[in-house]
Structure formats: C-alpha cells, structure tokens
Amino acid sequence: MVSTRSTDEARSTDEARSTGGARSTGGSAVLRTVLVANRGEIALRVFRTCRAMGLRTVAIFTDLDATARHVREADVAVRVPSYLDIDAVVAAAVETGADVVHPGYGFLSERAAFATALEKAGIVLAGPSRTVMEQMGRKDAAREIAVAAGVPVVPSYELDDDPASFAYPVLVKAAAGGGGKGMRVVRSPGEFAEALGAARREAASSFGDDAMLIEKYVECGRHVEVQVFGDTQGSVVHLFERDCSTQRRHQKVLEEAPAPTLDVATRDAMTSAAVALAAEVGYTGAGTVEFLLDTDTGDFYFLEMNTRLQVEHPVTEAVVRVAGEPVDLVALQLRVAAAQPLGFAQADVSVDGHAIEARVYAEDAFQGFLPQAGTASLVRWPSGAGVRVDHALESGQVVSTAYDPMLGKVIAHGADRDAARAALVAALDDTTILGITTNTGFLRTLAAGDAFAKAAIDTAWLDRHEVAAPAPDVPRMLAAWTVAMLAAAGVDHPFASDGFRMGADPAPMLVELDREVVVDRHRGTVDGVEVRQLSAADHVLELLVSGERVRAVINAQPRPNQPLRVEVAFEGHRHLFVGPDRLSDQAAVADDTLIAPMPGTVLDVRVTEGQQVAEGDVLGVIEAMKMELALRAPHPGTVTAINARVGDQVALGAILFEVHATEEH
Asked: Which residues pair with 301 in a beta bridge?
C-alpha cells in the first residue's frame, strides 16, 4: 500500500525533477530514488541529505506511525506490517522504483538476509556487501578476523566453559547487533545463568539472534571508536575517532569527537588498526570500528565493528573537514552506493574544533532509568550557532514503548572542548519536553558536572556514581507564581485565590503544590523570597529570584474539577507538581503489592497463586523499549494474587502481584 501520493503521480513528478530509476554511467549508477528502511529522526536525517542531492524519497511506516513526521515529509510512503519484515520492505522498494535503500541504524541495518534480498531484487543497499556484513556484523566472526589481522582483542571464554572457572567480572553480550542490547555484566558464578538468559532474550528480541559471547569485563575503560569509509575502488580512510565512554548499561549517553585525553601515539595506532581491519575485508561504505581502552594499562582492544551509520555520526560531521570543507556522511554513503570513488585521500582529512552529542530518551533517569510513555504535550528544541538537533518529536505526539526510547539528539560544536560543553549545557537548558518524563535534565546535570568537564568518566562511571536529581526549589517558585498569575488574570479554574479582590491590591495567595507555597504578587515574594517578573508569554516565564535571572517553560492549563497539575521545564528537567488532591492512582501502594514501575509488556510470570517465595525471588519480568526489568518479592511470604499474564500490555502503576508477608517477617 502506497500512501501520500500514488506511485504514478510520484514518478511523474520525478521525471519533471529528473529523478527516478537508476542509470549506469561508466561503471557507476545515477541514483534517483532512495527508500529509507527506518523511522523517526534517522529517516528525517537521511531525507535531508536526499533533498539536498535532488533525490526522491520513500518512507515506510507501520500503523503506529501512520501520521508520523517521517511519513509526512517523504515524497512517497508505503505501509509495512513491521520495520523488520524483509519481504515487505523489499517489496516497497520495488513498488516505488527505489534504486537504493538506506537502512539507518537498528532494525534491518545489519541483517545480511536483508542485503541478500535487496541484491536479488536488483536494489543497492547503502552499506557493505552481504558477505562483509556477515563477517563484520557479528561480534564473534569479527573477533576472529581481528585476531587474524593482528588487532588486539579482549580475552574471552567459551560458552560451554564452567562459569565457576571465570575470572569475574565478565561481560556476556550478543554476537549480533549492538547498541548495548543483549549485554550483561556478571560479577559472580551465581549470577551467570540469570544474566545469560536475560541477555539471550534481549538479543533474540532485538536482533533475531541469541548467540552470545563471554569476555573479560574491563572495569575502568574508555570506549573509543573510529569512523572508517571504504569505496568500491579499494580505498579506505578513517575520519578520526569518537569517545563514547559516558554510557549506562552499555547504552551511550554522551558522545564526543575527537576523543579527549587520547595521546597522539594511541590515536595513530587505533586509526591505523581500524583502517587495516576494514581494508582486510574489502569494506565499502560507512563503518565504525570500536575499541576499549584500558585506562589502567593504556592497552586497547578491538570490541566490534558496526557495519552501518552510527547514532553519534553528527559529532564526526561537526568536526571533520575534507579538503577544508564539512563532511556529510550520508552523502558519502550514497556516493559509495552509486559505485563512485570517495574522491579524497587520508591526507585531505582534518579536524576542526570539538563536538558533543546528548541522546534524549523517554526515560526517568532519576528513578532507575525506567522507560516512559505518554503524550508529549509541549515540545521545544534548541537552535542557534553551533547547535544541531536531529529529532522527530513534536508537540502532541504519542510516545509508546513499541520502539527504542530515543526521542532526539542535541549536538553542540565549539572551538574547543570547553566551548562545546558550554554550548551543549545551554542547548539542553533550552530543550523542553513536557507531558512525559525524559532524561534531558540528567544529561544537562551530567554535562555541567566536574567529572565530564575533566574527561574523567569511564564506561562504568555511571554504575559507580549517582547523579543527583535537580532541586525543585526554583521550579516550585516558578510554578506557584504561574498559578497566582492565572488567578489574578481572572481565569476560571479551581485554583483561583479566595483572597483575590477586584480593584485592590491582591492578597497573598496560598498555592498547594507538593507543599504549600505563599505567593504575594503585590509585595513580589514567594515564601518570603524576593521575586520580580520580567516577562510571561507563550508558556515562557522569566523572573528575577533574589536578583538572579531564571527562565522556564511552563504548562499549567486549567482543568475543571481536576487536581492542580503544573509542569515546569527548568534547566532541561521536567518538574511535575501535583496538588494534595491528586488522583488515587498516584497514591503509594501497600508493601504487599508490586506495581508496574514502567509501561510495558509482561515477558515472564514465574510464580503461581499460593506459592511460597523468599525475599528477592523473581515473580515476573516486564519489558519496555527493549529494556527488561525483573519484579522481585519484597519480603518472604505467599503469593496471594497475580494480575499479569505473559504478553499482557500493562500500564505504569498497574498492580501485577501481591505477596502476603509471613508472620515472622
């Protein structure tokens, strides 16, 4: 099914634009139509380059994404039952006359079967060959090639070895795929079976392949990766490196280029090893060779090769220059897909300044990084010199748990690392997402902190350190002042001050948020603190609080006969204030009750009613956005109620299990 315009209409328009089917010219192809086998921000990012190159764009979408932005912005859009349905995606490419398919990242981007199906259909994949993808797209095969090429690899164990013989900690990780999915750190033999099982399930769900590797886990390491590019004429170059050490559960949080604190000798050794490895396998297109740098010894090890464009590619685009000009990695991918030479040599590649990227996720970073879902009521992204945002999130958009929780990426470039970091903090201050909880405030706090400023964060830093949640004091004052403004303006809502008197100085107003706040607009105080309003328009409130200028985006829409609810986006973080008459589902649950801490799908139920359990026993497992969470018994007792079945979609706060404590508890 083709939506937006019909295929005939699209082709007619393409002819007028001189775009359409591919033509062969001197061994290379002239590309006219590009189908993006992906969604969201990466689809939009590829479309941006396609438009600049005068290429026709084709989107695919599922029912859940029928009105999504990437569908609206494509020239043609085709419905598919799933982004993982190879037959449907290839059929869409054939139906719309696509010459090349850009896979983005995730989904089918590293599936050799997808590359094979496209090849059989006579359609080019913007990626390496099927054979190279099979070799390098799997961590186990890539490891063997690295060993053969003389590239150092992390010490490993065999799956059938006795776990008791391992030197812990070890890392179990999926042989296929990437992005931190299917990985678990194991610290003792007793944890091994559970961790391996969870990693296998996650790998099967994410990549359709549950093959696993077991490697030594380097406690204090830096994750440094090299961007490589190869063409069909045999040229391979690197576009320098990125540092992705700031990560949690092997999922990258902040990425930057070039890598800080990396000495010239190590940089040269890493980039040379990456190029040699890519050349060894005849790599074409964009690839990333990932290394683990042991900060204790200075040794580095090959981890894996990602045979696709990376999420963090914008930081490379921000700093790398080819013959003095900025580089577009997607344009290079399409150039290689058309069998054209890269057109430059290694000596032409240089670095200008520094760039840092922050990944904005739908998750509550201060409550266990649990996935979030809901409607984004108000969305505002930053802009300005040196700031780039890749996103697909709009106001009013529903965020579900069906896909990866990444909502967008905020990238800042500066003359040096300090300038880039300051620009990123300012950009995150200007990032507003209300209606759902995101990690934006966490990112802002992290980027502004001393550890990141000193480049002292290794891959396990976030596992060892807790980032403090932003204090609610200033946001509470902003929220209270807003409610008082609404009351003074005569807005009919249930929080209007009883003391408001027309034609006289307004009396102090008692605002009940998470606690009582006294607002005296006549004297200009909130709880006795001096406040002066500077401006208030379009949801933006600026105040002087004790002489310091503060600014926030606020959503306080009156809701008749409902409790007070004010959202404040301050320094990136969403603060939600709900009055004391909040709805009953916000109340604390009894100690015997286990609720769903995130919206998601029930993967496993391991107990039955009447079963005796010990404290910490796993009762069930839920999954959201490819993150698994085990629900454990809060104390010894008897399972008295089970309100979950495998496959159920459960809402945040749903009661799933009840465990009646034993008398001696």
From this structure: 292
